Batch of 2 targets.
Target 1
Amino acid sequence: MPRSKSKIKTQSSIAALVVGGFVCPVAAEATRTDFNLASAPGIELFVRQVEDVRAQNRRGPVLLLHGARVGGVASFDVDVGEVSLAEDLAEVGHTVYIADLRGYGRSDFPASMTVDRFASPPAVPTAVAVEDVKAVLDEISARHANEPIGAMGWATGSHWLAATEAAHPGSIDNLVFYNSVYGGGGEWRLTENFAVPGAPATFNYEKFGAYRLSDTQSLVGRWTEAEGISEAFVNRYVELAMEGDATAAEREPAAFRHPSGPIADTLKAVHEGPLYDAGVIRANVLILRSENDFWSRPADVETMARDLSNAGDVTLKRLPGASHYVHLEPGEGRDRFFRIVTDYLDDGHLDDPSGSDGAKR
């Protein structure tokens, strides 16, 4: 059976206190309302709505979707250091939704993550993730009738969004594909970390099982020396990453569970080919990649741009000098990232896509 979770209130002094759907502003510009949404039988998804009713311009709804390890609040709404992407998007007029897929953050775990790690296949493969994403998009559509829906995923989050749009064309209007693997093109630098030796497309199930474990060091080890990242921010990021797993503190060192299915699918995609048909996607698509990203590859940008034959606008944009975590790193790189993303989510086009770091297809 899925685990039971108690709702965890937002801690930020700039946030709103939410109790049972009742929003009590605390000298806030943005208010946060948390709710649960049914997906598959027995699976409740956590969703947070972030809105600024005082924003001068009203823009369409935007879904922000986490990647393969950390849930949505840690990914997009850390309340330390003024780097909440959700709050920034709300301030320019979007109604923002942050969702946790099953097995992540504050959403229910699937049954395969509540038993021995080696009792079930890798948890939450792409097809299962698509089921959850579609449930969230349907809810957003019902709340915002006739408004264009924007969406951005971080790494695997973009893979899930694109796979959902491919399975249900027209579900997303403006899609930002951010630091994500698409498929084909050969080598992936993380293959040896996750694959069976000598079989690069095969996930090392005997090592990891249905779900993996991440402790603090593995979570932030490649990131803590980035400019502008404070100790207070890192501590809060780790706390938010851990909080969804009630068993995290029982391990030494403390570690939280997250599904293996996304990694197994990524290995298949990079070594065998894409896991969905980008040719049926109808959304406008911005393919956004950080120059120093360790997850995605230039080949993913090239092959996806080639395959988006029925999409609306397709724009490629490179972020010079930026890392995988650029949306969480204060400074010029994040400012550039935000300008590009808000420009595209506004109407599915960039005002100025030209330049050495960007191009139209």
Target 2
Amino acid sequence: MSQKSNSLSQLALQKFKKDFWGVFSFGFIVFVGLISIFAYVVAPDNSEYANQMHLSIHSKKPGFTIEILTISQKSEVEQSIFSQVFFGKKTQDTEIPISQYSIEGNMLTYTEYASDGLEGMSKSLNMSGVSESDLISNKTFLFGTDKYGRDLLSRTLVGARISFFIGFIAVFISLVIGIFMGSVAGYFGGRVDAIIMWFINVSWSIPTLLLVIAITLALGKGFWQVFIAVGLTMWVEVARVVRGQVMGVKEMQYVTAARALGFNDFRIITKHILPNIMAPVIVISAANFAAAILIESGLSFLGIGAQPPMASWGAMIKDHYNYIILGKPYLALIPGFCIMSLVMAFMLMGNALRDALDVKS
């Protein structure tokens, strides 16, 4: 029996490997996952939340290059390497965009950058004990800067963390609740099924976004609250699918044999029924990943998702959607394209999994 099961799994894996878009989407999702985990390692701005502001160079086009004067504070914040890698560097350094500078002895004279043809203020700084390379650096903003002068590339990379991980947490919550409710309703039937289905239908009738907003307002605004709220609204689809599958499988001969051997209901459901109905659950989980990303983006756009200064693709669109008609559409289109590509990757992978796990094909 195990050999047959393994061969079926291998056949499904071989069919999945033959689907170019499915494999490509899976690779893209893994790439985004690695980026979201190690965002602060690859981001040009590795400060906490990539929140280093330079108001004088706000809304600059992609590829903008400027010289930056970095003034380090004497007191440094103690922080472990682990914290810097995964949560960003807590820095008190001051970064000042400059248009020109000169050095005479130990004195550094610089002119602050000013846009729109204006001339910035000239100031002097004692640079005793500090080299020129430690103070002055040339910085290029590949994606340009947002309306606060923050590096848009860094914000995009760090924002991938929320959009990616909300899928995992929301889908995990929906699977735990949905599989439990669906399996209990489908296996026991009768009054238990009627009560659970009534609860499912009531939850189904409430618009998803409205329900998420209500739960978010009840739990409060924040990072984890959004994850929990989205997960608590996505279990209904899983429960309905699991219920239908369990109702069809519970009359199979191997389930009847398990009852005849005296196995309890918990073992029959967990050991014999659920392993044989996971194919459609895996497929719907891939779709729920995409739905969770879209819901979180919508919540962030409405201002009740991840709160500033935390980077989020939805919040980035909210901050810059007005710039679409002001000649700088890339400020909103770049995070929008990121959302679209990640959602499409999950949907394409879900379609590939559906074809690979279809026993009739």
